[in-house]
Amino acid sequence: MEQASVQDVSTPGRIASPGEGIGPDELALAARNHGLPLEALRYEVTPPGLHYVLVHYDIPAADPAGWSLTVGGRVRTPLTLDLAALHAFPAVTHRVTMECAGNGRARLTPRPVSQPWLVEAVGTADWTGVPLRLVLARAGVREDAVEAVFTGADHGVERGVEQDYRRSLPVAAATGDDPEVLIAYAMNGLPLPPQHGCPLRLVVPGWYGMAHVKWLREITLVDAPFTGFQQSVAYRYRRAADAPDAPGEPVTRIAPRALMVPPGFPDFMSRTRVVHPGPVPLEGRAWSGHGAVDRVEVSADGGRSWIRAEVAPPGPHRWAWQAWSCVWAAAPGRHTLTVRATDAEGSTQPLEQSWNRGGFGNNLVQHVPVLCC
Ligand SMILES: Nc1nc2c(c(=O)[nH]1)N[C@H]1C(S)=C(S)[C@@H](COP(=O)(O)O)O[C@H]1N2
Ligand SMILES: [Mo]
């Protein structure tokens, strides 16, 4: 008899066949990992429970009282820090918009089979904690260190590989102050909730969610680039459909995106919006991990013409989304509203999908079907 292995229950990534609907495995992931209800875009800081959640394996059992974070590898002074030791560092709060790199995946054709986000995998929180650079300075990063590897307390198997959730950052990003990476212990003024990484998580402003390691228990400085699963297998842009093993480009910062609060009221099943003829105020949020959002435009005719929206200036929270608003003159009939953001570097959301095998960074514009009557 052959021996059982984790590969028996954990198969390689795959692309859905033409016409294949969302399957029970994707439904199960979608039921665990919820998005931001789009009407909650109204709030500058996402209210408790409405921030999106993405957990690869299980939320681990975590006892804040017994927790310790170790800092080791290529450092002069290895550290073991409990929560009291971390609280003794200066506390810093950053308002940060976080978005899952897989946001938009389920809108790709063909569909990469994984967590089937549409557009809602985003949220904004006030994260309080210790600047990572201060902890690393205390440990003393050696000259030969090139990356810091962050390990979470959660364990699982993914695409046949058993692992602790683990990601790395280049030393320059880990020790930088713009953006400043945090070891966070509070979210919106309260201890981290279990699903968001209680008691410690990394917050990497401007980077997609996978970098913000939750349930953080270990930081290891290494003298060669980290090649773990979440770094070199997952979270790569592989644009060729026929080359699943190509190295691809690493997924890092957030591409620009604008979302609108769907106007009017919804139909329960189709989610189609209903509005009455006349001026309809539209509002939403826009963000980019490459800097401020400069321009937000809305189209009601599939991109033939665009209304320029008012965009709030970035203000003191450089890594948080910006509010936008405009008024749409709704005429009776069926419409599809589209909104797109352009950031300070001049990158604009695409009107056509840009496909990749993992379904990462799909910032294709939002489409909101509306019936005006
Ligand atoms: N330890 C650990 N950290 C993790 C994850 C995880 O599964 N385990 N998921 C990552 C991903 S893919 C995302 S998008 C964010 C989601 O953070 P949130 O659930 O607080 O919104 O956490 C990241 N950090
Ligand atoms: Mo994610």
Structure description:
It is a single chain. The chain is mainly beta. It has five helices and 22 strands. Strand 7 and strand 8 form a beta hairpin. 40% of the residues are buried. It binds the ligand Nc1nc2c(c(=O)[nH]1)N[C@H]1C(S)=C(S)[C@@H](COP(=O)(O)O)O[C@H]1N2 and molybdenum atom (MO). The site of the ligand Nc1nc2c(c(=O)[nH]1)N[C@H]1C(S)=C(S)[C@@H](COP(=O)(O)O)O[C@H]1N2 has 19 residues, from strand 5.
Helix and strand element order:
HEEHEEHEEHEEEEHEEEEEEEEEEEE
Describe the sheet with the most strands: 6 strands, mixed
The structural class is mainly beta
CATH architecture of the largest domain: Alpha-Beta Complex
* Secondary structure tally, helices: 5
Proportion of strand residues: 25-35%
- Percentage of residues in helical conformation: under 10%
Low-confidence spans: pLDDT under 50, at least 5 residues? none
Overall outline: globular
| CATH class category label of the largest domain | Alpha Beta
Radius of gyration: 21 Å
Mean pLDDT: 97
Q: Could you state the oligomeric state of the chains shown?
A: single chain
- How many DSSP E strands? 22
- Unique bound compounds: ligand MTE, molybdenum atom
Span of the ends, CA to CA: 67 Å
Strand order of the largest sheet: 14-15-22-21-17-18
CATH names the topology of the largest domain as: Sulfite Oxidase, Chain A, domain 2
